[in-house]
Amino acid sequence: MTSQRELFPRLTADMRRFKKLPQIHREPSDLGGKFSRERAETGDSRELDLDPWEEGGSDSSEFYSGGQQGRMAPGLFYSSPLFPLLASEVTSARKQIQTSVQQAMGHCRRDNLWRRLFHGEHLASDKLKLSKLSFVELEELLNAVQSRLVGEIDPQLDCFLTMSPGWYQSLIKVLLSRFPQSCRHFVDADSGIQYLAVLNQKFTDCFVLVFLNSQAGKTSLKVVFREPLPSQPQPSNSPPPQLVSMYHHLESVINTACFNLWTGLL
Fold first, then answer.
1. pLDDT tens per residue, range 164-193
2. CA distances from 124 to 2, 40, 113, 191, 246 (A)
3. 3 state SS of 21
4. For the residues of 78-94, what is the DSSP string, one character each?
């Protein structure tokens, strides 16, 4: 529909790709007499049809930047004097990509530790190639997930949060005997800290955690969730779906804690 020389972007692309554009034939009449007179006056013997795009000539990037280029990253160039808006958008996009990558790395690490907590001591762990979780890795996992005290789930359970460290030590023993296949016990003898994770094999996105620090006299009983709880309030004071799925398992743990209270009174 039109000649190639009128397609400036195509010409530039060809020049950048082949370093030299196809020779454009000119009619002698198109040159006019002006160039002949100038050549005669200056005594210049150079050819009139010298290709201005010969290799070694001016850089093609001048068409886009008009001067010196700036470098953002390997392979990414931009001209900050002429395109400040583009430069700011590149910087913003790079920060968003870096943030997304960091979040994805954190989620992958969290999910890997979570899987090892549930399946690291399974008989099929050799097939899954999952090693047992260490004490330090458990604390790393707890820092990467969400948790709620049992008193926040049901105010009637606040009484269990005020029990003595000795009672919590007996509770850990009772839970280990009550749920031998679902318990993961972590002990640091130097600091006197114990964690007992009571897993729910039917709903693996949360578990009950018993914490005991015998040296500092600190205890807690909470529910740990892999994903954050919904921030918006539920209609008619109904609990979040994560808590609904956990209630049956939490009820079993609380019944065991009540049994431990009863035996302590006898």
1. 999 999 999 999 999 999 999 999 999 999
2. 70, 93, 17, 32, 25
3. coil
4. E-TTT-HHHHHHHHHHH
